[in-house]
Amino acid sequence: MFARTCRLGAVLVIIGFACPTVIAADMDADGVPDEMDVCWNTAPGSIVNAVGRPLGDVDEDCDVDLADFAIFAHNLTGPAGCIPEVCDGADNDCDGLIDETFDLLTDLNNCGSCGLVCPSGPHATASCAAGTCGFACAPGYENCDGDPQNGCEAHLVDDVMNCGACGNVCPTYPNGDAACRNSTCEFSCNWIEGWDDCNDDLSDGCEANLSSTDHCGECGYVCNCEHATPVCEEGPMGLRCRCGDCDYGWMNCGYPEEGCWWHVASDPNNCGFCGTPCAPGQTCDMGACCDPGFKNCDGFMLTDCEVNILTDPNNCGACGSPCDPGQTCVNGSCVDP
Question: Mean pLDDT, the chain, as a whole number?
Fold first, then answer.
């Protein structure tokens, strides 16, 4: 005769032959018959699975407590319950160390503290030293305004406000332009507008106007015109000297660039005009060819030699030389009656 172990509710009993047929019991009222319920003493109202185990019972002790939550949180991180270490003040890789793969003294993305990223601006390379962010400027550049947001804004090679070094301003002078080339200040005159430094003294800048008669087209080229007004003007080959209007009584009878050398008011070979000679024995007086004893006293060539200085008591012997009242002019001399 064989004995059989039968379950009657929550009690196991040993009886002979077959277990008696009983109505399925559910002692913990979780909806799972006791003969199928692995957790037959769950708290009333618990949500269970098909075998009566409470949802969330990770450690399979038929209840849900802090231990289950700890295991659940641990399992979220991966198959082994851990993830690669990140900089967040926690032991992510479960090795008992916190943020051990990050050097907060030198890490550009975690400089001094987790998540602090060192910025870099134009022409700059970010750095982290002793847990403090900084940046290094590219060759030829410098952070002259002290603002990290615009990086190394000054190009020392050609910046006239920071030429070769921060704050080194290239000076400017009248009629010229300052420049910074290869980190060295330079100054050039505004030649396009016709200015130059002819005295080699930068204190007065580019003082010489190259369209003037003292420096016509270049330093020291003086326009000289005898008995004429000199002019410096633009020509086919650039600025050049030209002699303008002649002084009264003078004309240019051959070389206009040399001025007015011919005194047509007195030259018998060019009397009044170039190439107008007087007859033999005549003199040239105020541009008129006069016979002996006659003068052009009014200075007008159209009236020619209107005065006989040998007999005219108002111009006796010379124009504008009058005799005394009662005197006469005889052969150019005033004579008493």
Answer: 84
